[in-house]
Design brief:
alpha/beta; Rossmann fold; 3 domains; two-stranded antiparallel sheet; 16 helices; 49% helix
Amino acid sequence: MSYELTSSGEMDAVTGVHAVHDLRRESWQTAFVRRLVVTDAVAVVGAVGTAQVLRFDGPVDSTLAWPLPYDIGYSAVSLALALGWLALLHGYGTRAPQVIGTGSEEFRRLVSASLRLFGVLAILALLFRIEFARGYLAIALPAGLFGLIAGRLAWRRQLRSLRAEGRCHTAVLVVGSPEAAHAMATAFTDDPASGYRVVGVCVPTGSGERVETLGGASVLGDDRSVLDAVRRSGAGSVAVAATDHLGPAELRRMAWELDPLGVDLIVAPGVVDIAGVRLNHRLVAGMPMLHIDRPRYGRAKSTRKALFDFCFAAMVVLLSAPVLLAIALAVKLSSPGPVFYLSERIGRDGVPFRMIKFRSMRPDADTAVDELIAEHGGNPVFFKVKDDPRVTPVGRFLRKYSLDELPQFFNVLRGEMSVVGPRPQVQREVDTYDGEMRRRLLVKPGLTGLWQVSGRSDLSPEDSVRLDLSYVENWSMVLDVALIARTIGVVTRGEGAY
């Protein structure tokens, strides 16, 4: 495959145009990195200064204990430690444009650099018989890490707000087959926090009927006219999705030609809904290979998860006992009928159980569901309607903030549910499952999950299934804790529930 090359004069002109664009594209990144430098310096200097003051009961400059006949005060040690810490943060690329603002790699590098620094100090102390004050180091390391992470989180929160307003994005050109390009463009559009704004798409010649837009972006040409599309769209990055038309040699040539334009090249491996903990990359004969670990069904059924579920549910029930009592009284006094609503759900391995909720609808709600489905033309399998007339006034408030689901912690204590897991399903939904969808039944259903923090009732049936399967295959204890934390924010705001 060949690409049309311009003359040297034309290339100089193009390079000049894109140099201006590149400066504009990187201006927000430069400003963001400067803020990170200041925040990091404040966190590190504050941590070592605090450690010195607390360990030595004030600003007294104690002397370092070591065998050489030179007196070195801890003020000099603190200065050297702070400078070394900041230098290592820079050397580990914790402020590289590829990692700042999104994902976990930024924090991984930050923690790795910090631990490496204190590991080196421990080795030096052993080799040269330097006796650092243990309390000094024991305060400096956690205080510094806390300050560094807190600063990064604060700036990331501001960056997320700016990106939600359409600012601080990198313009990206998507290249690939129509299906893969559409999926990638849609993913970028649906996730503004990723920092990419799709400005065009290139699809291979002869890939089917001619289309003008994909994933909401204009088709600017084929995979032989990428450079021209970059020039016309002003893209700062090129993202290559799965395509049979671009092999290793073509991708390398594309990287060469994009380099003088200051344009980054991103290659997607063509896999979706795979957690980072399951991905490992390595080079084989000069070719990057992506190894995907097996799905984590077994780990999601581990004793560790069951123990966490029981302890967490017991703690919530004990702490929320007054709230549970108040809700029960409100339900009982506001409308006739029982306090609790028991509904059959399908649990792990297809075993049914009775899920407990506070009643939020009138007592005859189940008998009226067929009439509502016929009236609203909804999906009988995944039926959900806004402004449901069966919901009571108190029930509407409970459903908005998911308070009606608090009794499900008793299901967790009984071993029928997990705190985090796929959505609990009714029999009519399970009856429609194909082989892929039945994987949801490999683990216990949960009170919350990816579906809860990604839209709740606003999700389409297809997205609900995809998120549940992604959780089942990618489970980890860290994921559970993260989803619980995110659920608290979503529920507090009352987003997507009705």
